[in-house]
Amino acid sequence: MQRLRQKKGFTLIELLAVIVILSVIMLVAGQNVFKILDDAERGTFRTEFLEFLNSAQIAAQMDVMNGVITASNHDKCYSYDELSGGGTEEGYFDYKEGYEGSVLVDYQNGHFTITGWFSSSKYKIENGDESVTTDDVVDANATAASNTCAGKG
């Protein structure tokens, strides 16, 4: 009579092969996942910046109607605190902890030219306008965006 050999599980070699294959897959996929997450964060920051610029345009339109911005006084610098109302509900932009920046609005011949500087603890955009892309979002490296419109407006 021939003995039947019953197999009751995987051998050590089979288990190691599966672990190595899964490790390689995780290594390749993990790098792509982190890049996708970083791109999404940069896209979100860009959207925040565009909303910041939009809030400055709304504030400037109000200032034009109220006579603050005129033909002889055609530019104004808006700070992050001014546009966000310093964290109150009276601002044009939702206040977020850790953000800072400013926007220079120039109003001439019925047209707005808007340039902004915006930063968080992770990213920043300097000298940007509405054509900014995610490629313009750079790592902040613990430095805030420069504020070249300070002292104007």
Plain-language structure description:
With 153 residues, this protein is an alpha+beta fold. The protein has one domain (13-139). It has helices spanning 12-65, 80-84, and strands at residues 75-79, 100-108, 111-119, 123-128, 138-139. A five-stranded antiparallel β-sheet has the order 1-2-3-4-5. The model has no long low-confidence stretch (mean pLDDT 86).
Number of domains: 1
User: Structural class, from secondary structure content?
Assistant: alpha+beta
Considering DSSP H and I runs of 4 or more, what fraction of the residues is helical?
Answer: 25-40%
Succession of helices and strands: HEHEEEE
Choose one word for the global shape: rod-shaped
The low-pLDDT segments are: none
**Per DSSP, what share of the residues sits in E-state strands of 2 or more residues?**
15-25%
- The gyration radius over C-alpha positions equals 27 Å
Mean pLDDT: 86
Count of helical regions: 2
By DSSP, the count of extended strands is 5
Major sheet: order of its strands? 1-2-3-4-5
- How would a crystallographer describe the biggest sheet? 5 strands, antiparallel
User: How widely separated are the two ends?
Assistant: 101 Å
Kindly list the characteristics that best describe this protein.
153 residues, alpha+beta, five-stranded antiparallel sheet, 2 helices, rod-shaped
Structural topology:
Blueprint lengths: L11 H54 L9 E5 H5 L15 E9 L2 E9 L3 E6 L9 E2 L14
Antiparallel strand pairs: 1-2, 2-3, 3-4, 4-5
Quick take:
With 153 residues, this protein is α+β, with helices and mostly antiparallel strands. It contains 2 helices and 5 strands, in the order αβαββββ. The mean pLDDT is 86.
